[in-house]
Structure formats: C-alpha cells, structure tokens
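Inputs:
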Amino acid sequence: MEMTLDKAVAPLPVERSPGYWATVGRRLLRNKLAMAAALILIALVVMAIFAPALMPADPYASSILKRLKPIGTAGYPLGTDELGRDLLSRLMLGGRLSLFMGITPVLLAFVIGSSLGIVAGYAGGWTNTIIMRLTDVLYAFPSVLLAIALSGTLGAGVGNALLSLTIVFVPQIVRVAESVTTQVRNREFVDAARASGASSLTIVRAHVLNNVLGPIFVYATSLISVSMILASGLSFLGLGVKPPEPEWGLMLNTLRTAIYTQPWVAALPGAMIFLTSISFNLLADGIRSAMEIKE
Amino acid sequence: MRDTVEFEAPAPARDVGGPAQPLVIARDLVKHFPLKSPIPLRRAGAVRAVDGISFDVLKGETLGVVGESGCGKSTTARLLMQLTAQDSGELIFDAQGVGSPQLPMKAFRSQVQMVFQDSYASLNPRLTIEESIAFTPRVHGVPAREATARARYLLERVGLEPARFAGRYPHELSGGQRQRVNIARALALRPRLVILDEAVSALDKSVEAQVLNLLLDLKAEFDLTYVFISHDLNVIRYLCDRVMVMYLGKVVEIGDTESIYANPAHPYTRALLASMPSMDPDRRTLAAPLAGDPPNPIDPPPGCSFHPRCARAEPVCERRAPALSDALAGHPVSCLMAMPDGGHSLPLRRMTPGLHAATP
Amino acid sequence: MTASTTPAAPAAPAISVKDLHVTFAGGGKTIRAVNGVSLDVAPGEAVALIGESGSGKSVTLRALMRLHPPRRTRMTGQIHVDNQDVLALDKRALARLRGGTVAMVFQEPLLALDPVYTVGQQIIECIRTHMKVSAAQARALALRALESVRIPSPERRLAAYPHEMSGGMRQRAMIALALSAQPKILLADEPTTALDATVQIQVLILLRELQRELGLSIVFVTHDMGAAVEIADRVAVMYGGRIVEEGPIRTLLREARHPYTMALLQSRQHGMDRGQRLQTIGGAPPDLAALPPGCTFAPRCPHARPDCLAGVPRTVSLGNGHRVSCILVAEPSAANAAEAAA
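Outputs:
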C-alpha cells in the first residue's frame, strides 16, 4: 500500500530551528564575563602550544650570576628564578604541562565516569547499587589525600600523576552522571521510547545521551581548575613533574624560598594558576547559565 | 506536479481473531507497588494500585476509563502498554497472549501506542519534531529516509504543516500543537490500539475541541480502537462508546456510556455523575453527593472498597467483597446489590442521578 | 432593570477597576497581558472571570493585590478595593490590605502553602499579622477558621503539615487561611481545577455557603463554565487581555452576544451527540507580545469584518448589566434603552 504525498519530501525546504546547542552558544556569546574568560583561556592555550616559538630565552639555561632578577630586567621581562632561568620562558613552556595535567585527567574521568554513571542511572537495581557503593568508597577520601596516596604509591612522574588524578575524579563524575541519568530516565519521553519497543541501548543512545552529556560536561569543566591545582600540588610535593621541567606548581615550590627576596617573581607561577583556574570556572559558570533555557 | 514517494506503510496487522474477538482481554490484572519499610526485611505493605481488574476492549470502539485520584486508571494504562508488568493476571491481544511466543513484546508494541498527558514531557527536548516521530519506525527497522517521509506525512495529517514544524523543537510549540505531535508519533507504525491517558486534560477548551475532532477523524481513517482515560465526564460521554468506572484499583461498573450516564447502577457512579457541576444556574447543586476525599490505595477497606462512603452500606458490605456481575443490571456492576445472592437487603435502584439533589 | 438582579441601593462597589493595563517587560519583549479592563464587583457579589490561557484573567486577579513583580510590571488605570486606591498604596498599607481586606486562594495548595510549617502555624501567623491577639486567642481563631470550612477533625489538622493532608482538605485549609483575617473580598484563581470531581463540587458548595454566611465578595477565575455556573452571580468573559462580554450568569448562558462567548458555549461537549464533530474556534490564542490592532478576537472570528481591525470595539450596554464589546452588537435603540432602564 502506498502513501502518496502531495508535496515533495526530500527537497522540501523545512524551517530548521537553531537547535539546542546553537541556542546555548548564542546565549554564551552574549555573556561578557564568560567570553572574557574564554579569550584568556584561548590566549593561554595558544601561548602554551607555540611556546618554543614565542619564548624569548632558553628556559633551561641557568646562570648563577643572573639568579632572582626582578621584573623588568633587561632581557628578562619577568625576572629570573633561583637558578637564573628566564621566568617568562619557563612560564610559557610550563603552561604546556600545567594545562595538560589540568585537562587530561578530567577528560579521561569524563569518559570513564559518564559511562559508569549512565549505566548505573539507567539500569537501576543491583547494577546501580554495586556501582554507586563502590564509587562511594573512593568518594569518601578527600581528593587531595587520595591523590597524594595514589601518587606516592605509584611513584613520581607525569604519567602516574595523571593516573592518580583521573582516579580521584572518576567518582565525582559518576555521581553526577548517575543523578542526571536517573532524572532523565523517569521522564515521559523515555517511557514513550520504551513504549515504541526500543531496546535499552537504543534509548540510551538516542534519548538519554543528548539530555545527559550537557550537564555532566559542565560539571566536568568546573573540575579542570581543581585538577590543575591538585597537579600543581603534587608537583609541589615532588610527586608529579620532575625538575628541570617547567610546570607552574613545581616552579611555585622551588621559588618558595625566594618569596622574601623577590616576592613578585616568586608569586608569578601562582598567579598563572589562579588566572587559569578562575577562567575555567567562569567559563563553566557561563555555559551552565546558557544551558538553562527556560521554555 | 505531484511528487509521489512510495514506501510501504506497515501492512495493517492481520486481524487474527476476527471481528467478534475483543481486541484486548484483561483478566484479573493485579499491580501492587511495595512500600519501603524502614525496618529491613519487614514488609511494609503496598500501594494496591490495580487490585484485580477484568475488562474487554472491543474492536473499533472507544472505551472510556474514568475515576478519581487513586483509582488506578493510569496504572491500568501502563499495564495495557506493558510499560509496567502486572504482578498477576492475563493480558490477551487479539486472541494471542502478550509476551507469548506468538506475540513477542516488540510485535505487540508496534500494535499498541500511547499518548500521555504532559505534552511537553513526552517529547525529547533535544530532538526535532520529525526526529521524535521518526524514532518509532526506525526502531522497527524502517530506513531513515522513509521514516522521515512518514513523519512528515503524519504531521500534515494532524494539521501541522511539515514545512513549518518538522524542524522545530518541542519548546517552540504550544500545548495543543505538541499534543498533535504526540498523536502523530503514536500513529507512526499504524497501531491498532491507541491509549490516550488524559491526553486532552491539560489543554484549553477550544484547543481540546480541535484535538477531539482530530481524534475522531483519525479513528475513522486509520481504523483505530481507543482507550480514553480521563477525569472529565463530559468528554467521556461525548467520545466514548462504552465506559469503565474505577474506584480504588477495581472496576465498579462497565458498560454502554449512554446507559450508564442515564441510569448509573453503582452508588459510586451515581455520586460521581451527580458531582458534575450543574449547567443551569437555577438548579445549582445543593449538597455534595460524596463527603471527603478519594481514599488512599495503600490500605483499602475490607469487603467492598466503597462501603465507608456509601450511603446504602450495610454490615454485609464490610464482610463481603462484591464481584462484577451483570445479572441484575444488564451490564457488569461490582456491588452486592447487583448480585442476585449478594446478601444486601436493598434492591438495585437505577435512578437518574438525582439531578443534583444528591439522593444516594 | 429588574430589582432581583441588580444590587440594592448604590453601595460603593467592593472592587472597582477602570481601564486597567498591565504590561510585562522582559527578554526584550513587552507582553501586554491586560489591555483596558474595567470591572465592578458589588459587596457580597460573586463574579467569575472566564477565559483561556493568555486571556489575562489571572493577571487581572493578581493585579488587584499588586502581586506582580514591581520591576518588570507596569500597571496603569485605576484599581479601587474597598475604597482604597491599590496602585497608590505604600508598602505597609498594601501589607494590611493583603489578607486583611482581600485574600487569595490558589490553584495548587501544595505550592501555595509553606511545606515546613503546619497549617495551624500558618493560619496563626496570618491572624497575628492582622489582629492584635494573644497566641492562645489566635489559636482559638485558627480553630474556628478550620471549623468554618467544614474540615473533619479540625484540632488534628491544626498540627498537620500540608503534605499530610489530601487534596480536598488542603484546599479547605487554604480557604481557611485566606479567611482567617476576616477579609471582605476573596480572590480565587482556579481553586478547583486541580481537584477530583467529587471534591470539586464540595469546595464549590463551600465557597458558595461561605459567601452567603460572611457576605464575601468573590472574584473567581476559571476556564470551566460549569464551576462558574455553580458559584457566580455575574460572569465576565475575557480574551486577549480584555473583557469581551459580561453580564448576569443566566443572561450570558442564554443570550450571549459576543462571537467568542457563543463559540465557547458551543464548543463544549455538553449535549453533543457522539461522533458529531464539535464546533471549534479556529486558530490559536493570541500572542500577547504582538497583539493585532483593533479587536483581539478578530483573527479567529467567523464574523470578522475589516472594521474590526480599525479600533477596539466600544463596550455596549444591553441593559440589565449585560455589556458586550463587539461592533456587531449595536446599542439598543433609544426606545429599547428607555424601556430597559425603567
């Protein structure tokens, strides 16, 4: 039996609405604070990526004579550290590792945590209980202590630090993912999808994911700054990045004693951490506000 | 020039049982929701949402289900859709057991669909209208292009111009438009039975009228059977051929609409119909037919669940639970007065609902 | 005019609204919710405001107590409640007005009552805000308020939280709360829409009895003509922020003249045969941010003419308190008018 249509179908121009993410994007663009934060972050990322080309001096070239020069010294715009290395170059290059260690664990935790959380949230019952109670065990540890304990066990080094930070963040994301998924699962359009005879996998893929990933992503973004600070802390304690690699947390550690002689120089790595953290937070806030579209 | 897109609509499902076979036979369906007990391992009782109901849905009819909060009509809808599985009882669709090898779940679902009350919550806010409608056919294997074509066809049938609406999102439509989308979605696989759970309750009266007209047209065109759940007695009277009255998880009366509205047999039906606001300002309702609120299905009274509020209750009503019997009333009524050996002293009186004078 | 339908000697109206306009600004749009509403409610009279979503009935009701957020709202016109100019009241006078002179009952008691306080505490708080009484006296008054709404076991209800009560009892509790400070006017915004049929009729009868016993004026917003018939003496039909027709209930039911009122009455399922298509009003409710010029109903009106868009139709008085705002309804001829006024 054929159903005939009076108008052409495929070539018919259908009014396309902007769509959810496009609307979110547009609202975000209007948020000046979030846009400023985004610009700062873009500048930092560009700086980190192109650091070798942009650096004025060799970040590893040390010179006892030139140690702890103040800001504004000729040839060393931001001064030098305790080994006479140019601070500006080290900050630029250090951005690579710092940003890397801020973003990567969160990204990994997002993937792992979302999967576990969505499964727990959608399946319910025993699956949910097992996953969530295991998560609770990890969640019970304060993140700093957990990171230190894991790093200490695994040993120093960037790779191990990444691993321990990922493990620290997975439980938090699992919690958020499970909570959001449970809410979405109980909404009527999921019932309607079940009533269509769709399998659970199809429902998760077609209906749950597009409603759930947004909020989880926003939460994860707010974790980036935490990750950076934790990574800096690990480096500070000697558990993450090893010298002479520049990394903001490590630099903060080694410049610690210089706070009495050159306070401004010693504070610079901390200022970078602060700037990056607050920009990520403001951006995450902005995205969250933009996503609250009142219908 | 007309552009013809040929695609196979799903063949209207074979009529297995023949015209005399009821489309749905429900027998003794029970669904209790257990309550969480603060003390582990101790049973805390249950919400007896549906407490043993039996009814038939005939082919081509519109069956109304009416009742107040706690009567179990929404749970009944979910049981019919098998969104929730019953604790016990049989559900037979066109002479085949639902979930049996002859009628596996997925095949059943392609023949029964539902339209929910909350038009906004029933649509995925992240999908466009046509994606939402096309989802069901795609789940059942229809290729994407054809599913989209069918979605647009159905949009047009329900009165929404595809060019304007297909690419929109649910939050851009009004309540009435969204409900039309939900109806289009329910029809995407040419089901035989459509369950409408308070589908027009949230709409303005003028929009409600439009949607009701649409439902009538679609029923004729697609050869549908409807189960229409509502608390609005006027709509039920207008739309439904037969009506089923529910109270506290049980069916108290079921039969031809006109017959029940004109001469309700069960005391609860009488009270419910008498509660409809008067349309005559000179003859306003003087006294409420029933006192108090509809009870909670957690702890239903013993015997007949209506006896605490029934003006004609007798001690036997507390001891003995009535069963549906059509011996005295001509259609099934669940009341000891309607059973020949019920033990009740009063005869079954089928009065016109006291014209708001609230005579029980 | 027949004496039975007009109020007695010219007592000052309990509520007098003249040419009210309410606009909301927000999101870059201006929403014109109420566009020139004039309404009088006599003491002891019950008036129903009937309309669909977007008609402006709830906005009008809330304007009577100035409940709208002051920053986003602009109200022009006159609102006199119990001879006080509501739009000019200062904050303290407004607080005295609310609850003391005019009180409101809402559609969903679970949302309107505070979930963390018992019903008794909320009623006592209202009483003590408006009257100088001791705690014990307030409690006695609260008990009396609950008794007056015929709630079963009122002492127990005083100590009950809203979520512990059933829907009908909650609505009665809310009515008791509204009446506890003995206001003269009760505003009700769809108070029975969320209730079951058997409970709805109980609450409607209760409101009617309270109105008689206490001499309350009631303004009752609803979309259900049946509820209006049970309670109202007069009905005002609203569309697009204006009153299109108003009059005594019997007159409106039997002799409606405005096309919208007639279409509303005809589109009900009451009395229709099964299978017969319902009369519908084509189109959709108006967009309050972009109202058409002239009569707001014209785009959907089966009798529309070009003149309808020229300007807002004048309100024509057909006698007996029946007023219509439609160019198709002409002023009764001079002879008829003289007769009607006699």
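Remarks. Chain C has twelve helices and twelve strands. The interface with chain B takes residues 52-53, 152, 166-169, 196-202, 204-205, 208, 223-227, 229-230, 249-250, 253, 263-264, 267-270, 272, 274-275, 277-281, 284-285 of chain C (CB under 8 Å).
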